[in-house]
Design brief:
The chain is α/β, with parallel strands linked by helices and 294 residues long. The chain is built from eleven helices and eleven strands. It is globular.
């Protein structure tokens, strides 16, 4: 079956010509958005610029604008062993995070990041649905087992957990396969391809994605975190969207104006616009642009 669309002329008037749009194409356009989500990490990665001291009002305003934009996930900052300040996006526990979350959360989910040797997991409350929904946990290639044990404890507390190995470009293919075998055993919510130092080229992404796609349990989401060192983050994000399996759920990280550890990250406003134009996205870019202006 197919549906017909009028082809508009330059003046916006119908030309009288019709094109046939197959129903499978319309279904595909709607399905594309379903398995690609966007995660904003402005308050976490952007904190490397200002020591996470955004100010309480600004933290809440950024989160509110991102919820208005209909972004899928907002990372509110770091969970760390720290002296809590309402002015910073660094927290000791989920109770403190509640202070910055809006009453109207829309369909947006909230995450925080923790490094296993900088946050005591015993401080983390059991999941109650009133604060963050997921925890993103990072680890190095020299402390993988400690990181995976930590991930297991977070999962046991009821959270969705992203496993984010730092600098996957530093892993050999053999190391990646060995890590994926362990990841499949503990089954976190997601596993992220993290280009910590922004050294990834398209060929690197193709190689690493292929290894992950073909060896990671199909139920586990693949995440992508890019840096802008080679001015390739937007291009690589588009490549990733093109190469990813239609069966696989994916999450792409970005931040407002690319704010993050120099020289920055993928720009949220750009990837939202790209998703809207090519993947049937329904993101509202205007609140993100307003937040940048503010």
């Amino acid at each position: 079956g197919s549906k017909h669309s009028v082809i508009s002329g330059a003046d916006g008037e119908g030309t009288g010509l019709y094109c046939s749009v197959p129903e499978w194409f319309l279904r595909l356009k709607g399905e594309k958005m379903g398995n690609i989500k966007l995660l904003d990490c402005t308050l976490r990665d952007g904190g490397y610029i200002n020591n996470w001291e955004f100010g309480h009002h600004t933290i809440k305003d950024i989160i509110r604008k991102l919820v208005e934009s209909q972004v899928d996930y907002v990372e509110v900052g770091f969970l760390r062993n720290c002296e809590y300040s309402t002015e910073a996006a660094v927290f000791n526990n989920c109770e403190e995070i509640k202070n910055v979350l809006p009453e109207n959360k829309g369909n947006t989910k909230f995450t925080a990041m923790a490094l296993h040797n900088k946050y005591d997991i015993d401080r983390l409350e059991d999941y109650d649905g009133k604060s963050i929904d997921a925890l993103r946990i990072t680890f190095h290639d020299y402390d993988i087992e400690e990181g995976l044990t930590y991930i297991g404890k977070a999962i046991s507390k009821g959270y969705k957990v992203f496993a984010n190995p730092i600098n996957i470009m530093g892993y050999s293919d053999e190391m990646i396969l060995k890590l994926l075998k362990r990841i499949n055993e503990i089954k976190p919510y997601a596993f992220s391809i993290v280009d910590t130092f922004g050294s990834m080229m398209k060929a690197d992404l193709m190689r690493i994605y292929s290894l992950v796609e073909h060896n990671l349990d199909k139920s586990i989401i693949i995440g992508l975190h890019l840096h802008e060192n080679l001015a390739l983050s937007f291009s690589l994000a588009q490549d990733f969207i093109s190469m990813k399996s239609s069966e696989r759920q994916c999450v792409i990280d970005a931040s407002m104006l690319g704010m993050g550890r120099a020289p920055g990250n993928l720009c949220m406003e750009l990837i939202m616009d790209y998703m809207n134009k090519t993947q049937g996205g329904v993101y509202n870019v205007n609140p993100v642009l307003d937040g940048i202006d503010d």
